[in-house]
């Protein structure tokens, strides 16, 4: 992450602060797992709220053929 931050924010005026903040992130396996769980719960709640408030919605389906000429439905 530090190498990526160093390259991504190369032209930013506050690059040192960004890299420093990246360096202090807690990225243990448990921390990452917990953050992903929180993000998933948030997305699920947002989707439920959107579905509750929508009047109409559409479904998009696709059918293609794989290399063995078998139809695949998505």
How would you characterize the overall build of this protein?
It comes from Trichonephila clavata. This is Transposase. The two termini are about 35 Å apart. The protein is extended, with a radius of gyration of 21 Å. It has a two-stranded antiparallel sheet with strand order 1-2. The protein contains 3 helices and 2 strands, in the order αααββ. The protein has helices at about 1-10, 15-25, 30-55, and strands at about 65, 70-74. The mean pLDDT is about 85. It has about 70 residues and is mainly alpha-helical.
Task: Supply database-style keywords.
two-stranded antiparallel ribbon; mainly alpha; extended; about 70 residues; 3 helices; Transposase; about 10% strand
